[in-house]
Amino acid sequence: MTSTADRLAHQKQWEEGLGTNQKAVKFRQQDYETIWQKCLKSGRLFEDDCFPAERKSLGYNELGPYSSKTRDIVWKRPTELCSSPKFIDDGATRTDICQGALGDCWLLAAIASLTLDQRILSRVVPPRQSFTEDYSGIFHFQFWQYGEWVDVVIDDRLPTRDGKLLFVHSEEGTEFWSALLEKAYAKVNGCYEALSGGNTIEGFEDFTGGIAEIYTLNKAPPHLFQIIQKALRLGSLLGCSIDVGFILILICHLKINNHEASQFYFCYFQITSAHETEAVTALKLVKGHAYSVTGAEEVKFRGRQEQLVRIRNPWGQVEWTGPWSDGSSEWNYVSTDEKSKLNHVAEDGEFWMSYSDFVHHFSKLEICNLTPDTLMSDDIGHWNHCQFEGMWRVGSTAGGCLNHRATFSSNPQFVVRLEDVDDDPLDGEDGCTFLVGLMQKHGRQQRSLNRDLETIGFAIYKVPDESKGCKNVHLGPDVLLRQRAVAMSSNFINTREVCDRFRLPPGEYAIIPSTFHPHKNASFVLRVFSEKKAETSPLEENIDAEIEEEEVSQSDVDPHFKDIFKQIAGSDMEVSVFELVRILNNIVSHRPDIRTDGFSLETGRLIISLLDKDESAKLGLMEFHLLWNKIQKYLEIFKNYDRDNSGTMSSHEMRGAATEAGFHVNSAVLQAIISRYADAQYAIDFDSFVSCLIKLEMLFKMFKALERDDSGKIELDMQQWMCLAIY
Questions:
Q1: How far apart are the first and last CA of the chain?
Q2: Given 46, 204, 254, 564, which is the most exposed site by the fewest CB atoms within 10 A?
Q3: Could you read off the pLDDT of 668-725 as tens digits, one per residue?
Q4: What is the tens place of the pLDDT at every residue in 624-650?
């Protein structure tokens, strides 16, 4: 319950602007300024209890507490390693980032990209940090984590062996910003070992808050050159590389509306030997090396247009020597004007090559599209973007992919409304371009628990005419199973994020994110980036109730019912909670068509609290008659949703059953209901069903009684809250 309260409180803070780069969340509730001032006042250097200088901060397996690799490691501050340590000396450069004994080259490539743009660097590495002025052994960094920016505090004790840094270090050995940044990122992810293995694009995203696209160049889509040009105009970060590993591909088949679509699970195994990672091709391209794409232009060459791509080697020195390289003969056939326009950045480490050679020699292109707040220049176009947090929970919202037709519609749903077509369509046909990114949370943190990432993806459906313009709907199987998806993620894959680019006609579309298999618990962030402004929102029913207040008089009660009630109630003509539970259990025990563990005293007390008009804590004839009518109504609904005649109802049917009973709930409330009322197999028996509906009616009535002026809010002091919660 407290975790739910924490999540709801955090959601409210998020809506109020917490989580932006300017108002970052304090990781582990540690405030840099407060701790810094406290250390200055006490004269003691900061020691971080949340990420202590101990073996457990190194790792859990190869770098675990009992591993031979963690022997003889000593944690030291930079002031103990050299006489005059610097945080950043004369600007952050590529020579500040040298790999140590940790397989996080993917992260180092992303860190190196920060040195190319001071604006982005300053968002990750806050300025005014040093080892001289007001030094207290404390530093902080900011990372984008699953939809929000977090401010991470660390002390400057770093793992060393034989007096040298074990992990990232600078070439000179006196500059420490990169080593401290790596430590902060390890803290966010649980330990240093959690950083082993990954994709540079993950670092790009966590340093910018952008959304990543990955293109396999031997399967380059049409118009990729134009996509590159547009990405550069939008200020995106672009990287490319030549694979040196191999890909293990496992194929499963996803059957969608009788069409087979192969879905791929892959793990990338990087060859880490120095020989392979430093292998240079005959044309001087470095395998396994992260390059940046900095330009894409067309030039007139021998009477035709030639597409060129400009590449930058962050390490300098080694450059492409093939066609269009510096000084190659191709430049002799380009006009002086065009040549001067293209060659003005031909510095050491940067070169041009033809687009055809680019897709032939390179393996992968990564595009990190940035959020508007990252780009300050008015000369650069901006993506429009929205993001939402969501959860898949077993029994309520973890419906799995379309293969699982009985539960698919239970998944969370989001609507995107596309109105304006692209200004310059790549193929000349009108359409609305947008990106959808589905990211699952906390994969690296869960490695130490031996938990794998879930296999995730999404489908996109056209919203039917009767639901257009509505936010307060949840599309059911009657809608989603009678039409085909208009688009899908390219893969269902067990990776941190699935991201794809789409272009659809103007209209309203429902995005359904899901795990491949149903009944999987996970949390996710869904992001939509669009070229033109597009409204995006969750598709959720409004929380509401249509409660019919039945009026009953003595004359309306059947005489036979009165006689039975007299026999049950006894001389006082009222039924106590103990008598009520005994009566209800006697009734349901004689029904072979429903399964139940029996009504509890708690359910009995709920019923009496709802129907006891005279506050006698008992039910009189009229009140008992109202209850009897409710139970008959609920029994009919329950049997309608007991599809397999098992005597119980699947928890995935609870939304529809509650709606038929007059209660409209959203996914968050549904998750709470299932957690409270479903059994271990996520089935709901009849007594739990009745108890849930009685509780819903009571909560709605309590809220409406306390609500002021239809504001949708209530205000309680501590005593009122405690009394209501206990009641």
A1: 17
A2: 564
A3: 999 999 999 999 999 999 999 999 999 999 999 989 989 888 888 899 999 988 888 8
A4: 888 888 999 999 999 999 988 899 999
Which CATH number, 2.60.40.3500, 1.10.510.10, 2.60.120.380, 3.40.50.300, labels domain 384-540?
Answer: 2.60.120.380
- Whether the Cβ atoms of residue 514 and residue 455 lie closer than 8 Å to each other: no
Q: Which CATH class is domain 211-244+279-374?
A: alpha beta
Q: Of 526, 689, 528, nearest to 603 (Cα)? A: 689
Q: What is the largest CA-CA distance in the chain?
A: 112
What does the pLDDT read at residue 573? 86
**Three-state SS for 402?**
coil
pLDDT above 50 for 492: yes
Rounded-to-integer distance, Cα 152 and Cα 124, Å: 10
Pairing of strands 535-538, 456-462: unpaired
**Alpha helices, DSSP H, located in 539-620:** 559-569, 577-589, 601-611
- What is the 3-state secondary structure of 22-76? CECEEHHHCCHHHHHHHHHHHCCCCCCCCCCCCHHHCCCCCCCCCCHHHCCCEEE
By the 8 A CB rule, do 314 and 292 touch? Answer: yes
Report the amino acid identity of residue 588: V
Instruction: List pLDDT tens digits, range 68-103.
Output: 888 899 999 999 999 999 999 888 877 788 888 898
Give the torsion sign (CA, 141, 145, 147, 152): negative
Q: Mention every residue, 6+ apart, whose C-beta is less than 8 A from residue 371.
A: 208, 209, 210, 383, 385
173's CB contacts (< 8 A; 6+ apart) are: 81, 82, 164, 165
27 in Cβ contact with 188 (< 8 Å): yes
Looking at CATH, the fold of the domain delimited by 554-726 is given as Recoverin; domain 1 (1.10.238)
DSSP letters of 600-669? Answer: -HHHHHHHHHHH-SSSSSSB-HHHHHHHHHHHHHHHHHHHHH-TT-SSSEEGGGHHHHHHHTTEE--HHH
Q: What per-residue string of b and e applies to 564-589 under the rule 16 or more CB within 10 Å gives b?
A: ebeeebeeeebbbbebbbbbbbeebe
The secondary structure element, H or E, covering residue 149 is: strand 148-155
Active site residues: 105, 289, 313
CA dist 194 and 187 (Å) reads: 10
Q: How do the domains of the chain map onto residue ranges?
A: 22-197, 211-244+279-374, 384-540, 554-726
**Which residues, at least 6 apart from 646, have a Cβ–Cβ distance to it below 8 Å?**
595, 683
The predicted model scores a pTM of 0.85
